[in-house]
Amino acid sequence: MVTKSQTKKRAVSPDEADPRFVPVVKAFARVPGFSVMESKSGAMRGLMLNGKSFGMSSHGRFILKLDEERAAELISQGVGKAFSPSAGKVLKGWLEVTSPKANWKALAQEAHRLAAHRR
What are the tens digits of pLDDT across the range 23-44? Predict the structure, then answer.
């Protein structure tokens, strides 16, 4: 028999953030308007520019807001797949990075540049 305490999900501590995400955040540390949003559980961290999201890391996944053409190009190159926050729903221009060889920092810098131009 499983008790209630055994089924509770343990919150993720900040030390358990995906190590690939740390250099991404450090790259933007001094950029005006940049901030990191963290969920209460610590499981999701969002990259923000002037209060608008341009990327996030959640449960080992890295998700970025690009333009639709660039997202499609990266998908065709095998870098990632279209981001689907729930079954049957795909967000246009959002890419979930799936390639273990992808450079998260470089991709985040690209997403940041696009976000800065959308203001």
Answer: 999 999 999 999 999 888 878 8
